[in-house]
Amino acid sequence: MAVREFPLFIDGRWVNGQVAGKFEVLNPATSEPIAVVPDAGPEQARAAVDAAAQAFPIWAALTALERGALLLKARDILFAKIDALARLITEENGKPVAEARGEVGFAIQYLPWFAEEARRVYGEIVPPPVAHKRLWVTHQPMGVVAAITPWNFPATMVLRKIAPALAAGCTVVLKPAKETPLTALEIARAFMEAGLPPGVFNVVVGKRAAPIAEVFLKDPRVRKIAFTGSTEVGKVLMAQAATQLKRVAFELGGNAPFIVFDDADLDRAVANAVAIKYLRVGGQSCICANRIYVQRPVADRFLARFTEAVRAIKVGPGFEPGVQVGPMINAETLEKVEGLVNDAVAKGARPLTGGRRLTDGAYLKGFFYAPTVLTDV
């Protein structure tokens, strides 16, 4: 497959120049490059904020109905490209193409939802404390919103952040994850084709997030930071945002037990446990279960059925028919998972299935790890 080149999207234009370097986007199923993108830094981030700040008065002056119409047009364009977007997500993220298609279909629905919600941002009349006065509250768009999104849901996380901001009349600067920038750029293309005014939505791709985020945090024109990622990074962003009293919307980490009581339907419990643990980006999501508690009277029966179901999961490249779980996102994540399993086993855990890298045949070059069940943890 030919390696494609993708530019940045700033002020309604595709921007390739004035960037010091580039980096490769890898297919985690093969560890081979699928695209080259500019490695943007502070200069490009400032240009994107400049564009968003200049576009804000024009965008905010439109009615909610007018802004919503553009969101609906973008929805239609994205829906027409749903299969191509799903393939792109599978290429850069690794998840099975059927799962990727489901993600795109789900993500697109944020556009009509928030297009309609923005029409109902009502004001409020407040009873005055003294005669001959009137008090009322109106809601105004706050300004530029900086959005920082993760790699595990490349379409959903982007549209969930930008749809409400754009519908409300804010302009957006997006920094997508370095592992999955291509989906974000294709979403920007759809908005451009829909007729979104220049500067209203900008995408800055960079291998290092910190220098770009620093621009967002220090520029007073950026009024809100929207971030999905680790709790550790979220704490840093919140502390820095507080110096300018920027508003924040954070979705941080996850710590999700799955609990099976002794009166549960075990077949249903097993099916749900497999789905919520393994069948969402191969478990690489904050909403996936990270441990399972089972009441003792049904523990052995549940464990036997669960282990059998996990052994039956088909792992492989996302374009292969019937694949349920793709690769880890990168080599670092693969090594982290391997280290966690090895550490648990060294401390007494028993692997009932999995517990190893997959390296044969179709797995040879990718970042594959067998779905694993550990007990006595």
Automatic annotation (TrEMBL):
Record key words, sorted: Oxidoreductase
GO biological process: gamma-aminobutyric acid catabolic process
Organism name: Candidatus Segetimicrobium genomatis
Coiled-coil spans in chain: none
Listed name of the protein: Aldehyde dehydrogenase family protein
GO molecular function terms listed in the Swiss-Prot or TrEMBL record: succinate-semialdehyde dehydrogenase (NAD+) activity
Annotated InterPro entries: Ald_DH/histidinol_DH (IPR016161), Ald_DH_C (IPR016163), Ald_DH_CS_GLU (IPR029510), Ald_DH_N (IPR016162), Aldehyde_DH_dom (IPR015590), Aldehyde_DH_Superfamily (IPR050740)
PROSITE patterns reported for this sequence: ALDEHYDE_DEHYDR_GLU
